[in-house]
Design a protein that fits this description.
Number of helices: 12
Largest sheet: 6 strands, mixed
Number of domains: 2
Number of strands: 6
CATH superfamily of the largest domain: Ethanolamine ammonia-lyase light chain (EutC)
């Protein structure tokens, strides 16, 4: 199969996956699919019908011709998932490297633009509130809207959450919905059970849609919580779209600055394993409560 056809097939399959994720197959979407199939030919048909799933190219090898130190390149590739040792074709990347780039880029785009599913929230027993960012466009273009809850969101939080708790946990989609669905099922139970076992009063966890890190400040003030822990999706990259961070803040206020937050990042299967991260967070929260501070102040203790 030529490079152009392979690329066309990859693009079409990603479009079809997007439609399926959004529940848009059937009716008008099905007619659109048929039209795409008619124009694109057999490659689109295979993608739509899932009869010939695409295999993402393997770029783990060393493609540099006659390298001065082959062992050194192999050692580097074993120590990092970065795109090294792939060489080029003229001034451009080789076909397989470019196709892998397109696939990873599509996955990163999905992580940003797709929503955390209702099925996931139901499974995790999380109720949902939204920030002032009404949709993804507002969320991406106006970050300040993601730091404040909508009026309805404030009302819901006050109605459904216990006040004056020691720890309030929130799950925030941030810039990667896939990071939330991939990691929270392992992190959240370990975190809540570990805190409860230590005699720490934990509030009702909930989900914040279209949220930024700073939304934890308003929530902490609304509920008068000692510590707010935010599990939030990180900005996706070409290595992984499933990386999550945890931000912790002690007694946030209008004067809170970023240096007041304690954070661990790269929570995913290729970084800090989710279950291990949950246990680590328990220890850090206990330190924050004991020191009555977080961020740089905690580091200087």
């Amino acid at each position: 199969m030529g490079a152009d056809n392979q690329m066309e097939k990859l693009i079409i399959e990603n479009v079809m996956k997007e439609l399926a994720k959004r529940g848009l197959f059937g009716g008008e979407a099905e007619e659109v699919c048929k039209e795409v199939v008619k124009k694109a030919g057999d490659f689109a048909t295979a993608a739509c019908c899932n009869e010939a799933p695409i295999e993402v190219p393997d770029i783990s090898g060393v493609w540099v011709p006659d390298p001065v130190n082959l062992d050194a390149i192999k050692a580097m590739k074993e120590s990092t998932p970065a795109r090294i040792g792939l060489y080029r074709a003229g001034a451009r990347p080789k076909t397989d490297a470019f196709l892998k780039f397109l696939a990873d880029h599509a996955q990163a785009m999905d992580a940003v633009f797709l929503d955390v599913s209702d099925e996931f929230l139901t499974k995790m027993n999380l109720f949902s509130v939204q920030t002032e960012a009404r949709d993804k466009d507002e969320f991406l273009k106006m970050p300040h809207l993601g730091r404040k809850l909508s009026e309805e969101g404030k009302k819901t939080v006050l109605e459904r959450c216990q006040k004056n708790v020691q720890v309030q946990i929130i799950i925030v989609d941030g810039l990667s919905s896939s990071a939330i669905e991939a990691n929270v099922p392992d992190v959240l139970p370990v975190l809540t059970q570990g805190l409860n076992a230590s005699g720490i009063v934990v509030g009702t966890p909930f989900f914040v849609k279209n949220g930024r890190v700073g939304v934890q400040d308003e929530i902490g003030m609304l509920l008068n919580a000692d510590v707010v822990v935010s599990l939030i999706g990180e900005r996706p990259g070409l290595v992984t779209a499933d990386s999550m961070s945890a931000y912790m803040i002690y007694r946030p206020s209008e004067k809170t600055v970023e240096a007041d937050r304690t954070m661990i990042s790269n929570i995913h299967k290729g970084g800090t394993p989710p279950a291990e991260a949950g246990a680590l967070l328990v220890d850090i929260v206990k330190q924050i409560l004991a020191a009555k501070c977080s961020g740089m102040k905690l580091s200087l203790q």
